[in-house]
Amino acid sequence: MANQEDLKKIGQEGFSMVEELSDWLVPSPPVGSFNRLSSFGASTTQPDLIIRLKQESTQAFIKAWNAACNFNGQSTLLIPLGIYKLGETIFRGPCKSPIPITVQVQGTLQAVSDPSAYSGDGWISFDSVNGLILTGGGTIDGQGRVLWQYNNCKTNGNCVLLAASIYMNNVNNSNVNGINLINSMGFHMHITGSNLIMIHSLSITAPGNSPNTDGIHISKSNTVEVSTSVIRTGDDCISIGQGSTNVTINAVTCGPGHGISVGSLGKEPKELDVKGLIVKNCTLLGTTNGIRIKTYPASNPSRASGMLFQDIVMDNVMNPIIIDQHYGTKSTKPSLVNIHDVDYQNIRGTTLSPIAVSLMCSSQVPCQNVHLQNINLQFKGIGRRPTSVCANAKVGYSGLQIPPPCKI
């Protein structure tokens, strides 16, 4: 259990930038917890661990997290208004406190703009935490404008991605809401090996030409919901990687960016299947792709199935509906990712490409049970009508079809 001496150490072990936490906290005798002074409007029923830092402050954040995590009671880590510089920061569990532990970001967290400061997949990581609320209305600034110059993925197919702003590994029962993420080094959020994750009311922003700045990347995770968020990036607004199951994306506005993507799949050996994806009530604005499924050729066998894309608006999108099983390399070997049971319903809007629907599937494992219902995509160009192209795909149609169905 944390005590006042533990918290004093955070301000005494060489961290001159810390205003001693003991000045901001008073004991609550019945449970031995800590609460903010009443003048700061804190609850008297939960401990708040408050950080006020002026310089690079990674270790102070980690120590404050450890105090909250090891406190045997419900706890909140509160980061008030201000700008706080952090290098690689890992918030590790499991925690002793009853779930959930709350991280309330009111200020701005700013990444150290030195790529050598990051050795792992994330800048701010949550690892092995059961029960987490990340909220507060603050900003997480990855300082990508300084660091994108170190991204060589356009010329190196085996490049190592820069750190994700928020990296969640083995996190369960989590709610992330009301956070602003800007200019990530790599992905803005990467969720992997996690379960029961709810994400809503986020603002994610990076320039349209920023490299590999996916808004949210999900892999090897089950039951993830992303809703009511606005994502503007230089890559996929949301990307669904291997091993993702039961993912729902609802009421997300995307653009600029590369759209909402399943994949890319099949790059690594023995990838896990993707199953159970719902994308609904979303709007894509000026993106290079709309809703896309992309797999590498010459892949190991895997599956991507049970996907529904419903009630989606495309506004000046380059490639509104696309399956691309020749993504990423010039290999002539077919992809072995088996795509089946995919439904597109009530997709409407405008396309900047005359090819509004492109279903280019694998010759080895053709797409099965793909169905398009009520598609209305008008071409913005002059003198041409939108068209569809298909290869190695068994497709069914119902309702309005603009562009017309493929002639197979």
Automatic annotation (TrEMBL):
InterPro entries: Glyco_hydro_28, PbH1, Pectin_lyas_fold, Pectin_lyase_fold/virulence
Keyword Hydrolase (UniProt): yes
Keywords of the record: Cell wall, Cell wall biogenesis/degradation, Glycosidase, Hydrolase, Secreted
Cell compartments where the protein resides: Secreted, Cell wall
Similarity comment: family membership: Belongs to the glycosyl hydrolase 28 family.
Protein's recorded name: Polygalacturonase-like protein
Organism of derivation: Rehmannia glutinosa (Chinese foxglove)
